[in-house]
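Hi R.,

Here's the chain you asked about this morning:
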Amino acid sequence: MSDSRSESFPDLRAFLDRLRRDRDLVEVTAPADPRLEIPEIHRRVIAAGGPALLFTNVKGSELPLATNLFGTARRAELAFGSRPLALVRRLAELVPTLLPPTAAKLWGARDLLREARQIGLRRARRGPVTEVVTHDVALDRLPALTSWPEDGGPFLTLPLVYTEHPDGQGHNLGIYRMQIHGPRLAGMHWQIGKGGGFHHAAAEARGAELPATVFLGGPPALILAAIAPLPENVPELLLASLLAGERLRRVPGPGAHPLVATAEIALVGRVPAGVRHPEGPFGDHYGYYSLRHDYPVFEADWLCRRRDAIFPATVVGKPRQEDFFIGDLLQELLSPLFPLAMPGVVDLWSYGETGYHALAAARVRERYRREALVSAFRILGEGQLALTKFLLVTDRAVDLRDFRATLTHLLARTRPETDLYVFSHTAMDTLDYTGPAVNEGSKGVWLGLGDPVRELPGEFRPAVPPPPGSGPVEVFCPGCLVIGAPPYAAEPEAAARLARHPAFAGWPLLVLTDEPRRAAASAINFLWTTFTRFEPAADLHAAATAIRRQHLVFTPPIAIDARMKPGYPDELVCDPETAALVTRRWREYFPAGGVEMGDSDTAHLDPGGGAPLRFV
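And the predicted structure, written out as tokens:
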């Protein structure tokens, strides 16, 4: 495995040094405000595929601020290297063959055993993170970002939150956004299904506070481990060590937990029992605002940091942002392990353009009729995958990463009457506001198995004119039309009406939207405008429905109502004053030139318009 090794970065600044050598880091020495201005600079740079940014003159703080660290596929791959993927693939190859173990098999796996000896935690007496240790915490002097005009305040957007189960059942390291409420007080955004939240619930049940340590910066492997959807009680620190290829060095700190020695900053404190504070709004990775709700709080007692600490941050919003590149890399890393954890699953992909939880697709084994459902239920019961809202399932070869090809493949094979399932009254991702209440919603599973059962239309040539009240009609892919419709408030039942109209007969799938040309302009657009704006139990319609054998039978066309509904949060857009300021000052930020100014409101979405797609 030594041939697969790639450069490993022991801390944030080592990674920044490499980016500097590669001319993929730009230092911004002009004064810039972390409230709205820096986030808009970041968004315009990432929209154009630009470099990482290091702001050295941040208003209101003495610390420099690093953003857009992982905002291209190249930088994400560089940060985490090829070694982790090679290691995971080797592990996936060996596990099925090692049982029962024999001397010969173990000898054949000696390369992996050598790697295993380098994994773990190592105690050290001191490290850079404890160069400054003080009670003068002053969270409000950190260069935390207020990213969007309606955000409730500044947030820590890359905090690595470390907690331990009060009964000694392992630790959790996760990235949970933290709104700064005061000099020593911050929110702790533990959504449902999060390990740190489970730890807090266990402590709170006995009336006890939960010690917590928040790391900022450190080895890039630590960030990847914190994001990874590991099963509960699987130790993220060991995964970080595995990814980095060396033992993770920790030093004593002033609180209950040892500190990661090479972190830039560590906030040491606790999450008290029974205390909640309003948090939000916050412009999140779905591309809309998550609204104001009560969440636990973090009370900071100590600030530990390097003398010349660098503050890392990110900005989320409409796709694709930094979290997309990390999320897709993480999927590629873990994909060889899916068949080990879920034996019937050949391949699995969640679509970052939908916020990941809103849509996934799977290729499964179908060795007997309806075995695919066994794999579907397994996926929907597996860790963070349990929050998946809509799951497409097939048993034939298709590149799941190509969504247009995947949807075409499924539509050619599905029999919606028996292959489309809706499960009401389920939990749903906290950030998905399409359900009837926070954390509540439904799930859908759509099967497309075996050989094709229909020839899909590729061009819209209706036998009769489309009905009144239907706007432009666009072909997204063979078998799928995107249809403009009246605003939801004007006609809530438009989806059922259009699905019954003969103009759309022969098309398996219709998607109703407020903006058809934008939705059909690209796969990214379709994914984002469709799956972030519909809930299966409320927004799936058909030409006819019936109940047979307690199963809801959908007669095609199937219509997804992806219009904006009353109560949905607003789409994220930059305010005009900040947009004008950043445009005016662009040459001040980048006097040497060479940094393209992208469109932050569009991000990586296609603005829409242009000639319609035709598939013949």
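Residues 1-5, 609-616 have pLDDT under 50 and may be disordered.

Let me know if you need anything else.
M.
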